[in-house]
Structure formats: C-alpha cells, structure tokens
Specification:
Layout lengths: L1 E5 L3 H12 L3 E5 L3 H8 L10 H10 L3 E4 L2 H7 L2 E4 L14 H13 L4 E5 L7 H16 L6 E5 L9 H6 L4 E4 L3 H11 L9 E4 L1 H32 L3 H9 L20 H14 L5 H13 L2 H9 L8 E5 L14 H11 L3 E5 L4 H8 L5 E3 L3 H5 L4 E4 L11 H7 L4 E4 L6 H6 L3 E3 L4
Parallel strand pairs: 1-2, 1-4, 2-3, 4-5, 5-6, 7-8, 9-10, 9-12, 10-11, 12-13, 13-14
This protein binds uridine-5'-diphosphate-xylopyranose.
GO biological process, one term: UDP-glucuronate biosynthetic process
EC number: 1.1.1.22
InterPro entries: 6-PGluconate_DH-like_C_sf, NAD(P)-bd_dom_sf, UDP-Glc/GDP-Man, UDP-Glc/GDP-Man_DH_C, UDP-Glc/GDP-Man_DH_C_sf, UDP-Glc/GDP-Man_DH_dimer, UDP-Glc/GDP-Man_DH_N, UDPglc_DH_bac
C-alpha cells in the first residue's frame, strides 16, 4: 500500500519505517530539509534501539523514501499520516498549528481520495478541526468534489521500545465515523494483527480521548506510588515491600508502580497538563489530574531535598557524581527529565555536578553547553573521580551492580542518593556507605 507520513520525528519515523518493514511503499516527509538530507544518507536524528538498521534496510529495499517536497508527499499515499509535534503552548494546551498546517497542505495538493490519519497526540475535537481546515482549502481550490476521511489512530509507543511496540502492539485504536475507512485501516494494520484481533474501532472523539486516558492513567499510577513512598518514609515502612504486596493483586498488577524521582519524557507531563486543560475548557475541574501533576512536580525535587537535608543545606563546594540524565533508560531524551531538576538545584546551591549518561551526554551538552558547575564525563567511573557523593537518577542497566567497596573508597562522603531504588539497602550499607533511596 502507498503511505505518506508527515513529520519525520520520533513517531513519524518509527511509524513510516515499521510500515515499510512489512512491505508497504512509504514516503516520509518533513519540512526540515537538513533533516531529510541526513535521513537520505541514513543519519537518524534520534536514538532508538534498532531504528537505524531498520531504516537502512528498508531504504535499500526501496520501500522507504524521504522527501521535503509536499506535492510529492501528498501525491504518493492513499494513507496520509500526520505525525508532527503538538507542543504545549503557554497555558498547557496542545498547540495544533503544525497538525493543521499539514492538513491544509494535503488539501492543497490532493487530486484524489485520501485517508488522513492523526497519529500525533491531539486534543479531543482535533479531527473536526482537520476536516474544517481541509474543506476550506478544497473550497478555495474549487475542488469540493474531492473526498477524504479523517481517522484518529493514536500511537502508544514507548521510547526505547518503540519498534517492538509498533510491530507487536497491545492494541491499535482506530477512531472513524465511516465504516469503509475502518475497513481500510484494518487492511493496513493486518500485518501487525496476525495472532489476535488488535484493532479496536470507535468514534473519533473516543479514540482521541483514549490516548490521553492511557497516559493519564499511567501517570496516576506513578504519582500514587510516589505519594505512598513519601508516606512510607514518614511511617518507617519500605515502599518496595508495599509495592510487591499490592502488585501481587492481579487487579493492580506489578507494572508501572515503581516509585522514583518522578516521571518525565515528552508524553506524560505534557498530556496530563493538556487533558486537564481540555477539561477546564468544557467546564470540568479535573481534581485528580491536577493532583497527579502536583505530586510529580514535588517528586522531582525529592532527591535534592534529601541531599540538602543530609548536608544541612551546606552544598557549596560539594561535588556530586550524577549517573543518568535521560528521563528513563534506553533513550537520549532529556525532556522534562528529573535529572534536570536535580542538577540545576545542586549547581544553584553552589555544588559541582559530574554528570554521566550512556546516551544523553550530547543532549545534555546541547541543553546546558558550558554551564558553570557542570562537568560532562565519558564513563560512570570518571564521574566518581573527586566526588563527595553519588546520585542516581536513571536506572540504566549498567548501574545495577556497581562495586560498592570501590564506591565506598572513592566517594569522599561515602553516600549514595538513589532516585530509582536500584539496590538492597542492607547490601549497600555493608560496604560502609550511607544510602538514601525513595520511600524506604
Ligand atoms: C509513554 C507511554 O508509556 C507511551 O505509551 C506513550 O505513547 C508515550 O508516553 P514514554 O514517555 O516513552 O512512553 O515513557 P514510559 O516508559 O512510559 O515512562 C515514562 C516515565 O515514567 C519515565 O520517566 C519513567 O521513569 C517513569 N516511570 C515509569 C516511573 O517513575 N515508574 C514506573 O513504574 C514506570
């Protein structure tokens, strides 16, 4: 099938590449010509395990092409995916200008029937706006007879596991008001749907809301656990025991109940805010969403508070090794990462930070440049050199089993602050280290 994907960022690139992987003829379009030139040469703008190889393979097979030419892009695909960004504007609502600009350019250049698929995370009601924008352009062109359908088909990709999530999805949500389009989408997704039926069809607004509901629910689980973790500390309980105690209830489950130093990333913070905002616009006060966000903002400060408390507020001249900068393992993404809150607070308090991350160093340099008080280090041991204490912010695999005796020797103040509960406290303490984690 012929497919066009607008937006060669994270979602667009993964979508286009995976659709090519199963044999479709895909064009990925982006207005950023430099990005397109690089993609043509096989240079991928993001870090995602397996993606580079898959792009290359499909490019070589001629199933995946890149263009900055809108006309070519619109002319190509029966299916036109919109996978451009929806960044939050000042009040937290999703900014739709890029989505609507794509919709208009599809209408501007189409010469036959098109299925326009919203893949970007967009507020409820966006598909209606896409329709209005497209009809307006078609009218201006005097081409009202050209037909199109709009579908909401939200993505549920996790960074770091995006290819797997696309190839073996839990579900494929298709929101449409036209049964014929639902059939087309089912055919498109048939290769990902072989072992069981994964396509869930519904009306457009429900599909749009499903995406926000999923992310808000997951964020709620995390904030709930973080709230309980803070309470456990005050009560002298261990949240890790509590986690196992409740996770064993199949109604609750073990996943997504890990307490820590807060959730980050491009989705949860933005989507919780945007949903809250949507609620407000229709006159509903979303109490729970507001609390989820507040708990998370507070949680991102927890590690710093613990450090400050340990040092009685005297952080001037102290040196901290930080392991982990990305908002979670297996990505170089630092958007809304808890590490940023910690390192900025430490530096503001007069400390020096020696930062290490297996993938996000370049991104950190892009964000912070030569920030005073921040030293980038090339491996986890180099970060420890001359450090008073170690703080762990991201649970990369390679941090799971450090040599605690060595840490005890090298860290001047013999103390670890762990924002991800990576270790067994009693085991760490055997090496003469003080150990502060979350909720225990
Ligand atoms: C998320 C959704 O999972 C995905 O379905 C959606 O499409 C986009 O948003 P992602 O942002 O890649 O994906 O990250 P995810 O793996 O969900 O983690 C989000 C944040 O929650 C991370 O900061 C992570 O550290 C934190 N988290 C996750 C916890 O603190 N505890 C948990 O138990 C799980």
């Amino acid at each position: 099938m012929k497919i066009t994907v607008f937006g060669s960022g994270y979602v667009g690139l993964v979508t286009g590449t995976c659709l090519a992987e199963v044999g479709n003829d895909v064009i990925c379009m982006d207005i950023d010509e430099t990005k397109i030139e690089k993609l043509k040469q096989g240079i991928i703008p993001i870090y995602e395990p397996g993606l580079e190889a898959m792009v290359k393979e499909n490019q070589e097979a001629g199933r995946l092409r890149f263009t900055a030419d809108v006309k070519e892009a619109v002319g190509h695909g029966l299916f036109q995916f919109i996978a451009v960004g929806t960044p939050p504007d000042e009040d937290g609502s999703a900014d739709l200008q890029y989505v609507l600009a794509v919709a208009k350019s599809i209408a501007q250049h189409m010469e036959g029937y098109r299925v326009v698929i919203d893949k970007s995370t967009v507020p409820v009601g966006t598909a209606d706006k896409v329709k209005v924008a497209m009809n307006q352009v078609l009218q201006e062109r005097g081409k009202n007879d050209l037909e199109f359908d709009v579908v909401s088909n939200p993505e549920f990709l996790k960074e770091g596991a995006a290819l797997d999530d696309f190839m073996k999805p839990d579900r494929i949500v298709v929101g449409t008001d036209n049964p014929r389009t639902a059939e087309l989408l089912k055919a498109l997704y048939a290769p990902f749907n072989r072992s069981r039926e994964r396509v869930i069809t519904m009306d457009i607004r429900s599909a749009e809301l499903t995406k926000y509901a999923a992310n808000a629910m997951l964020a709620t689980k995390i904030s709930f656990m973080n709230e309980l973790a803070n309470l456990a500390e005050k009560l002298g309980a261990d949240i890790e025991h509590v986690r196992q105690g409740i996770g064993s209830d199949s109604r609750i489950g073990y996943s997504f109940i890990y307490p820590g130093c807060g959730y980050g990333g491009s989705c949860f913070p933005k989507d919780v805010k945007a949903l809250e905002r949507t609620a407000k616009q229709v006159g509903y006060q979303a109490e729970l969403l507001n609390a989820v966000e507040n708990v998370n903002d507070r949680q991102k400060k927890r590690l710093f508070e613990k450090i400050q408390h340990y040092y009685d507020g005297n952080l001037k001249g102290k040196v901290f090794a930080i392991w982990g900068l990305s908002f979670k393992p297996n990505t170089d993404d630092m958007r809304e990462a808890p590490s940023r809150v910690l390192l900025e607070a430490l530096i503001d308090a007069g400390a020096t930070v020696r930062a290490y991350d297996p993938e996000a160093l370049e991104e950190a340099k892009r964000i912070y440049g030569n920030k005073k008080g921040l030293v980038y280090t090339e491996d986890q041991n180099e970060a420890l050199e001359d450090a008073d204490a170690l703080a762990i912010v991201t649970e990369w695999k390679q941090f799971r089993s450090p040599d605690f005796d060595h840490l005890s020797q090298i860290l001047r103040d013999k103390v670890i602050f762990d924002g991800r509960n990576m270790f067994e406290p009693a085991f760490v303490k055997q090496s003469g280290l003080a150990y502060y984690a979350i909720g225990r």
